[in-house]
Design goal:
heterodimer; A: alpha+beta; Lipocalin; nine-stranded mixed barrel; 4 helices; 9 strands; 29% strand; B: alpha+beta; nine-stranded mixed β-barrel; 27% strand
């Protein structure tokens, strides 16, 4: 009987301990409008449109065929561009006990799915992908996500700025204002395309809404 | 002893429904072991249940040209999971997400656990799914489909009246998920049909699957995958 009680108490203690771990960021979110300001003067800053390009990348943008924009072809636009969008909802689905955080997008064709692995390093796979390989770790209540392994198919912005397979993204995500919002900071670096690392900030509002089915082809 | 009871209650309350989080893939051949999926010959089963108009529509359909997945539209949840399904099972507090690998064409099945079907549902490719636990079995009820998808790759039609009931449980000591499906459609079917499939837990994550990466390559891939099933369905007819 004593052993049972000890086991139950330990189990109970472990639940209590787990509750003091990483914050629960599960939910449906959407970026606040560009002109909105939250308490403390918090507001969206920066934009993929403003990435500082190297001269060769500036030249390349002049010949970009905007009809081939992945966003217009129902293709993934990549995390750098997708996470800045104000016009679509995202769903953050943590499975911390299983070492991952999944991010789904209402606009599934352009957003696809992001799986952030918490218990491993980069996979080392040689085949570059549209969404890259994402790993994460908690620094206090901030989820830090590191993504590499991109192909060079996605664009950095609507104007057709390209990146290379050396694109490296670091995202810092933390709940603020009592968990009603996520503060989201995205930093991109790419020594072959960007003159220097570039950071933008978005504030995501937690919604009581459900993700709706959004089929890209239906819009065309 | 009251505090002991309180602690025990707390632990039981925390236990909640079973956690099957993980990646699963359709089990075939040797992977099935002793499991026997019901109605593997699904095309024949469905054809035997089609209303005359639905059978006529199927026979008039050009399988390749009318394949929605060939143009990166959804295949719907009747077709992909039973045909090639692999998915991520991801439970949240108020719903279970079944994230299909081909997210462009199969999407996500969101099973809401704490609500009923909304009134005045607008038809969608994957419909509206609600679920509840009956012991260790999740029972999922899905309605609100549009009529743009097919029941299987043989281009068997359904109507907006389609109703899918899934009974989902873990078997094989947690190595498999068994999904038993009952499909009703009073407009397109003469009676309901049932089939089951097994999905094996895998250590791999979902591979990136971009439908429109190269439209022509994708169409060729789909055509190649679809052709044997269309030929089989013509033989059945």
């Amino acid at each position: 009987m004593t052993r049972v009680l000890v086991a139950v108490l330990l189990s109970s203690f472990s639940f209590g301990f787990a509750q003091t771990g990483p914050p629960d960021i599960a939910g449906v979110y959407q970026v606040i409008p560009g002109g909105a300001t939250l308490a403390g003067g918090l507001r969206n800053e920066g934009s993929p449109a403003n990435v500082p390009l190297l001269p060769a990348a500036v030249q390349q943008i002049k010949t970009a065929d905007l009809k081939r924009d992945p966003a217009k072809m129902c293709q993934p636009v990549g995390p750098f561009r997708m996470m800045a969008r104000e016009d679509t909802k995202i769903e953050v689905a943590p499975a911390l006990a299983h070492g991952m955080v999944v991010v789904l997008f209402e606009d599934a064709s352009r957003g696809l799915i992001r799986t952030i692995f918490l218990n491993r390093g980069h996979s080392g796979k040689t085949t570059p992908t549209w969404m890259g390989d994402s790993i994460g770790r908690w620094e206090g209540n901030t989820l830090v996500v590191d993504t590499t392994g991109f192909n060079d198919e996605t664009w950095l912005n609507d104007a057709g700025a390209r990146h290379s397979e050396a694109l490296h993204l670091v995202e810092k995500i933390r709940p603020i204002l009592g968990g009603k919002y996520l503060e989201y900071k995205m930093t991109a670096e790419d020594p072959k395309a960007l003159a220097k690392p570039y950071t933008y900030t978005r504030y995501y509002e937690k919604l009581k809404a459900e993700i709706q089915e959004d089929v890209c082809e239906d819009e065309q | 002893m009251r505090w002991i009871a309180a602690v025990l209650f707390s632990v039981i309350a925390h236990a909640g429904p079973p956690d099957w989080t993980g990646f699963y893939s359709l089990a075939r051949g040797k992977d099935l072991g002793s499991f026997k999926p019901v109605n593997l010959n699904l095309h024949e089963v469905i054809v035997a249940h089609l209303q005359p108009w639905a059978r006529a529509k199927m026979e008039a359909t050009d399988g390749v040209a009318d394949d929605p997945g060939g143009t990166c539209q959804p295949d719907g949840i009747f077709r992909y999971p039973s045909f090639a399904g692999s998915f991520l099972w991801l439970p949240l507090t108020d719903k279970i997400l079944i994230v299909y690998n081909e997210i462009n064409t199969a999407g996500v099945e969101r099973v809401y656990l704490n609500r009923q079907h909304p009134k005045n549902l607008l038809p969608t490719w994957n419909g509206d799914s609600i679920g509840h636990w009956e012991g260790d079995t999740l029972v999922v009820d899905t309605i609100g489909f549009n009529d743009k998808s097919w029941l299987q790759p043989g281009m068997e039609p359904h109507s907006e009246e389609a109703h899918l009931i899934q009974r989902i449980r873990q078997v094989g000591n947690g190595a498999f998920i068994e999904i038993t499906n009952v499909v009703e459609d009073r407009q397109a079917l003469t009676s309901a049909y049932t089939y089951s499939r097994y999905y094996k837990r895998t250590g791999e994550s979902l591979a990136e699957n971009v439908c429109a990466e190269d439209p022509q390559v994708w169409k060729d891939f789909r055509r190649k995958a679809l052709q044997p099933h269309l030929e089989h369905s013509r033989e059945v007819r």
